[in-house]
Write a structure and sequence with these properties.
Number of strands: 24
Largest sheet: 13 strands, mixed
Number of helices: 13
């Protein structure tokens, strides 16, 4: 048994330390190649090696717990009302459930499949946690949540709460709400703590994280002696759903930035992650409309908000677009040397606004529950006095930047996705300018022909009346925005530009992967087919009429 304990303590004190199969040095996950890579010797370790190491760790850990259990003095008391489990010293005959207040009945303390394998011990005391909450209340005295907590600080209780700690590679698919295309992504999750108690607000507990994972220990009974401890009361399916949701929330900020939308749908495959039950130290106030959690290791405070927060307003984009339309209507004539016409500006602004509002009529605000929290910090005890330092070294988001994958030539390869590229922006801008000033350009071309071919005087150029194209602009500016909303925006997100990530980290554009199917010839044919032909004839009539007015 001594040999087993020695191997356990030296090799498996932290099962999340993934080591190289070749030299034993730390191995880092390579998202692109989907394996663990050793920076020391260059060897690769397959994805299943950490899972095999975890099984070995569990066997050794079970032997240690079995040995310690023979002399352990802890007992488990089950609440008959709410099902909570409080671990207290075996010499105490009765206990009161701090979750619901029910008197508890004594039972034997036995291991279960969900019994913790790891633990982060309490570092700050109950009084120190209350003091951190009082500081938060003082710093946020104007908030309604702080006012509601002001007289409830003494309700705070400390518990070891049940978690599943996960780490490893993940995969998933994501797509925008306004696009049919799905994107496959892969990434890696550092330590993510997922609460497994049904009675507590999981998002509130997320808000008081992160934990300092450098201080995690293999579970020992001595850590929980006399301390209220809640055991896992969720089933495997519920736990897996929570794990998937936590991982998705960790990746959403990066996915939203890459896909340029906060209205996303994403799913996660976390079947390859390491998953270990653990206990985490938490001080909580659970009753009432406003609840609170204080991290028992770092002292970070988290508070439930009284209302949701709007993170993306559905009216913002149409309003900004309407202002752009009105601004262009005011600016273009001025740039051409004419006086500003407020009636034209107002008219085009109203027309453009109606078009944009119609296009965005189904778009609503995006609401999220944003939990209130204090800054990240690290707690350190010096001469029996707790002190706090900046916790910027702790990761708020445990998700590494995801890599997207596309099927290229029958092989799933890592790629970079882009939407509004420079080339696309330039093409769209040139197309819009040509269409907006087409009558002016045709008029100049006819005058140039008369001047340089027929010998007319150069003064003919000064006789071109640009502002007589106002009727054309009134027609085309709304049409351009309709084209932008109905065609350009759709094609940009439905047909992204894909760049293959090469072995040296550089990128190469993949040609012809997602191209708009309709050719120029097909567009011309469609333009002169019913019912589009009538619109086309009207536009041609407007062009010729505008050119005649400009040259008059």
């Amino acid at each position: 048994m001594a040999e087993v304990m020695e191997e356990f303590q030296e090799t498996f004190t932290n099962p999340f330390n993934i080591k190289c199969d070749g030299c034993g040095a730390p191995a880092e996950y390579d998202i692109i190649h989907q394996n663990y890579h050793c920076q020391h010797c260059g060897a690769t370790t397959d994805l299943h090696a950490p899972l095999r190491a975890l099984e070995r760790y569990r066997k050794l850990h079970a032997q240690e717990l079995k040995a310690n259990k023979q002399t352990g003095k802890s007992k488990k008391y089950n609440c008959p009302n709410c099902g909570a489990v409080v671990v207290i010293d075996s010499t105490e005959a009765t206990a009161k459930c701090d979750f619901c207040g029910t008197k508890m009945v004594n039972s034997n303390f036995v291991e279960s499949d969900a019994f913790p394998e790891l633990i982060i011990p309490f570092k700050i005391t109950l009084e120190e946690a209350k003091e951190e909450l009082r500081k938060w209340i003082k710093d946020n005295s104007s908030k309604e949540e702080a006012k509601k907590l002001q007289n409830r600080v003494d309700e705070m209780k400390g518990y070891y709460l049940p978690y599943q700690v996960v780490k490893g590679p993940v995969n998933g698919k994501v797509y925008r709400a306004d696009s049919f295309r799905k994107y496959q992504y892969g990434g890696f999750i550092e330590e993510v703590a997922v609460n497994t108690s049904q009675q507590l607000d999981n998002l509130l507990l997320d808000a008081m994280e992160p934990f300092d994972w450098r201080e995690i220990h293999p579970f020992e009974y001595g850590f929980i002696a006399g301390q209220s401890t809640k055991l896992q009361d969720t089933n495997d399916k519920q736990i897996q759903n929570r794990i998937n949701e936590e991982i998705k929330q960790a990746y959403l900020p990066t996915l939203e930035k890459t896909l340029q939308s906060m209205d996303l749908s994403a799913d996660v495959d976390a079947s390859g992650v390491l998953q270990i039950p653990a206990l985490m130290p938490v001080y909580i106030i659970t009753r009432g409309q406003v609840q609170c959690a204080v991290n028992g290791q770092t002292g970070r405070v988290a508070v439930t908000p009284l209302k949701e927060k709007v993170t993306q307003r559905g009216w913002l984009e149409p309003v900004l677009t309407m202002l752009v339309v009105a601004g262009l209507a005011e600016l273009v004539p001025v740039l051409l040397g004419f006086h500003a016409h407020l009636e034209l500006t107002a008219g085009l602004g109203v027309v453009g606004g109606l078009v944009v509002w119609a296009a965005f009529s189904g778009k609503s605000n995006v609401l999220k529950v944003i939990y209130l929290q204090s800054k990240k910090q690290l707690a350190k005890r010096i001469n029996n006095k707790i002190t706090y330092t900046d916790g910027k070294e702790l990761l708020d988001n445990p998700a590494l930047t995801p890599v997207f994958f596309e099927m290229l030539d029958g092989i799933l390869e890592p790629v970079k996705i882009s939407f509004y590229t420079t080339a696309r922006t330039v093409k769209a801008t040139i197309f819009a300018l040509v269409l907006a000033f087409l009558p002016n350009m045709l008029a100049y071309a006819l005058v140039a022909y008369d001047v340089y071919v027929n010998g007319d005087p150069v003064e003919r150029f000064s006789q071109v009346h640009h502002f007589y194209a106002a009727a054309w602009w009134c027609l085309m500016i709304p049409i351009l925005f309709v084209l932008w909303l109905a065609v350009v925006r759709r094609d940009v997100f439905d047909y992204p530009v894909i760049y293959r990530i090469l072995p040296d980290g550089s990128t190469a554009k993949v040609e012809g992967l997602y191209e708009v199917d309709m050719s120029f010839k097909e567009l011309i044919v469609a333009a002169f087919m019913p019912p589009c032909c009538w619109v086309t004839l009207f536009i041609l009539f407007m062009i010729f009429g505008t050119v005649a007015a400009i040259l008059d």
